[in-house]
Design a protein that fits this description.
Elements: H1 29-51, H2 53-76, H3 87-97, H4 105-117, H5 133-144, H6 169-176, H7 182-187, H8 199-211, H9 218-236, H10 245-250, H11 254-260, H12 272-292, H13 299-316
Helix pairs in contact: 1-2, 1-3, 1-8, 2-3, 2-4, 3-4, 3-5, 4-5, 5-13, 8-11, 9-12, 12-13
């Protein structure tokens, strides 16, 4: 066989690179970000309906701050603008929906700069971050400004409920044993962070992401298995206070966290088995925090802890090559 002459312009061009060799052009970063924003529409709409001006204010603050932070940190690194990929917008919307409407402007601003700077840029930019950027920002302000993060003070809000000035359902149960009706948790006529109150809105947006394969179904599946097992055992143990496993699923930020935060493709495992383990571990940690810690929630810390274990989970679940050991 005659050897190929590399100098011949008609010679075939052979590209050698590691697998995988199949590329799905539709799975671009921008397309995935657009899908997330579409999935967030029911959540944002419900937050605007319930919290009105408070929700609009937090959205504006977090979006502007995230975009400014992205411009600043990218310029500091001497790289071209990355605003077109939409990741900063998604971070801003998720961050805003994870904050209470009454949080002061500086809370959202600081959270946005921490999310973009420490949560993403310091690792190398989009696609390189170990932790979910929005949760990094929220964790920082939750620890630094605990008083300002209290979801209260909605005395002048008029919406689906007459006035949302009560404690959040999770706080009310944790502190006083008050059990919120499941109907209120499902529709979202309760107090809380902007995006966590309506289980229906989170389910609609989450199902859209799963159908579009922007979110992997294995993570929610693993998480719900853990919640059902631990919550079911608690129900069978004879808890007579009325708080059931359904309250754990519909209450707080569990549904918002599992569909819009835990399924982040960058900070979650790569393999189907790893994703299920990730969801299972997240659900177990959430129940651990809710049962035995002083926090009424636990979703944010559970996701961040599992983000830290993602490289290890990826190593544990490396698939066996075809014909290999």
């Amino acid at each position: 066989m005659k050897p190929i002459d590399d100098t011949d312009p008609a010679a075939p061009v052979i590209q050698v690179s590691p697998s995988p060799h199949l590329v799905q052009s539709a799975s671009s970063t921008r397309r995935m970000m657009v899908d997330v924003l579409i999935g967030m529409v029911p959540v944002v709409a419900m937050s605007l309906f319930v919290f009105r001006g408070y929700a609009l204010f937090q959205l504006a603050v977090c979006l502007v701050a995230c975009l400014l932070a992205e411009l600043l940190f990218v310029k500091m690194r001497g790289r071209a603008s990355t605003l077109k990929d939409g990741s900063a917008i998604v971070t801003g919307v998720i961050l805003a929906m994870s904050l209470p409407g009454t949080a002061p402007w500086y809370v959202g601003t600081i959270a946005a700069f921490v999310a973009i700077g420490i949560g993403k840029t310091i690792f190398g930019g989009v696609g390189m971050n170990l932790f979910n950027p929005a949760m990094v920002g929220r964790a920082f302000v939750m620890i630094s400004f605990a008083g300002a993060m209290a979801a209260s003070g909605f005395e002048d809000v008029r919406s689906a409920v007459d006035a949302i000035s009560q404690a959040t359902p999770m706080n009310a149960y944790k502190m006083n044993g008050v059990v919120a009706p499941l109907s209120e948790l499902f529709w979202g006529t309760t107090n809380g962070s902007l995006g966590e109150t309506s289980a229906l809105a989170c389910l609609l947006g989450g199902f859209y992401l799963v159908i579009r394969r922007t979110a992997s179904w294995e993570i929610p599946a693993g998480l719900f298995v853990a919640i059902l097992v631990f919550g079911g055992v608690a129900d069978l143990a004879g808890h007579a206070d009325g708080w059931t496993v359904l309250h754990h699923i519909l209450g707080g930020s569990l549904l918002f966290g599992v569909f819009f935060i835990a399924t982040d493709p960058v900070s979650s495992p790569l393999t189907p088995k790893g994703k299920f383990i990730f969801g299972l571990g997240t659900g177990m940690l959430i129940m651990l925090f809710r049962f035995f810690s002083g926090y009424p929630e636990g979703v944010m810390f559970a996701v961040l802890l599992m983000n830290a274990l993602t490289p290890l989970i990826n190593r544990w679940t490396i698939p066996t090559p075809f014909g290999g050991q």
